[in-house]
Design brief:
Blueprint: H1 4-35, E1 45-52, H2 59-68, E2 74-82, E3 85-87, H3 88-105, E4 109-113, E5 116-118, H4 120-125, E6 130-133, E7 138-140, H5 152-157, H6 182-207, H7 211-217, E8 222-224, H8 225-231, E9 236-237, H9 240-250, E10 258-261, H10 269-274, H11 284-292, H12 300-308, E11 317-319
Parallel strand pairs: 1-2, 1-10, 2-4, 4-6, 5-7, 6-9
Antiparallel strand pairs: 3-11, 7-8
Helix pairs in contact: 2-3
């Protein structure tokens, strides 16, 4: 007869196996459900999509936009934004996706913001038909930032020597263990200027503004919603409800519409651990940081990342400094 310990191990293995099977089946069904078109009862719906937090990965937003854009029951889209911006690539990807949906579906897309509509978030917003903001919203921050850290003196103090063997003189440009050379600074400045020009062109095209006007205010400054409307960087003062009314009028619905919010998926611990493929704010790193902040010992690497914001170093960002640490 098997010992109690062996029986216990067998039971545990069986339970783990059953849980794995159920998880596999559930994920298979969920994946099919994500790709399947939504079933909407009302014929006249305005879709509400939210874009919040630092934009480091736009997969979730883009997936929802793609899923609902061609639904005949969706007559217009309102994007509610509260974001200080984020990485260049994802911000531009969202901008291009919104613009493409407008062209392909001819459905009105209205942006609404009562909080932050800055930098990369504003870049995304100018692809919309209209931008509606609260009078006290923070809008703009048109510019690009690329941060570096020079830890050479810290390494010297700790008696640590770091170096690289590279295939070219620019391969380790921006490395934290040495001071940046003048030619490297010029290289990065040219990169920033190019991306900055892309930002300004998107604003000029989306807002129908002259280059002189955009250049005057595209120096990284933020403005209130009221100032943004006055200068042409937004269309009107209003609330989220006003944005829906504008979308309804633009779609020819008047007030005869229903607001459709994408159902939120119920998530368990397994879902939290597996969301690292989506937005960074829901990644394993953020979850770990959450638990570490509850009292567990932080590693030196995690501490340095927090102090020096290492996860954002050495990459151009459309972000409003001071609101995303």
């Amino acid at each position: 007869m098997k010992s109690p310990f062996v029986r216990f191990v067998v039971v545990i293995l069986v339970i783990v196996g059953l849980v794995s099977i159920f998880r596999w089946a559930g994920n298979l069904i969920a994946d099919r459900g994500d790709d399947a078109p939504a079933v909407l009862v009302s014929k006249n719906n305005i879709l509400q999509l939210d874009l919040e937090g630092v934009i480091m990965n736009g997969k979730k937003f883009l997936k929802k936009l793609k899923k609902y854009k061609n639904d005949d029951h969706i007559k217009a889209i309102v994007i509610n934004i509260n974001s200080p911006g984020g990485a260049v690539g994802p911000s531009q990807e969202i901008y291009e996706a919104i613009k493409r949906v407008r062209v392909e579906t001819k459905k009105p897309i209205i942006c609404s913001s009562s909080g932050l509509l800055a930098s990369g978030a504003y870049y995304s917003a100018v692809a919309c038909d209209k931008v509606v903001v609260a009078p006290g919203a923070l809008v703009g921050s048109i510019g690009v930032i690329m941060e570096f850290a020079n830890l050479q003196k810290l390494y010297d103090w700790a008696k640590v020597s770091r170096y690289s063997i590279t295939s070219g003189k620019y391969k380790d440009s921006g490395a934290e263990y040495r001071e940046m050379r003048p030619d490297e600074k010029e290289l990065f400045q040219n990169l920033i200027d190019d991306v900055y020009s892309q930002f300004k062109n998107a604003v000029m095209e989306g807002r129908k503004l002259d280059e002189a006007v955009v250049s005057q205010y595209a120096d990284g400054r933020v403005m209130t919603g009221a100032q943004a409307v006055k200068l042409g960087f937004a269309d009107s003062i209003g609330t989220l409800e006003d944005a829906f009314n504008i979308a309804g009028e633009a779609a020819g619905l008047g007030t005869d519409y229903k607001i459709y919010e994408v159902p939120k998926k119920r998530s368990g611990i397994w879902d939290l651990l597996e969301q690292h493929e989506d937005d960074e704010l829901n990644s394993v790193d953020e979850i770990a940081e959450h638990f570490l902040s509850r009292g567990a010992n932080k590693s030196m690497e995690a501490s340095l990342q927090k102090v020096f914001r290492a996860q954002y170093l050495n990459q151009p960002m459309f972000v409003m400094p001071g609101y995303w640490e």
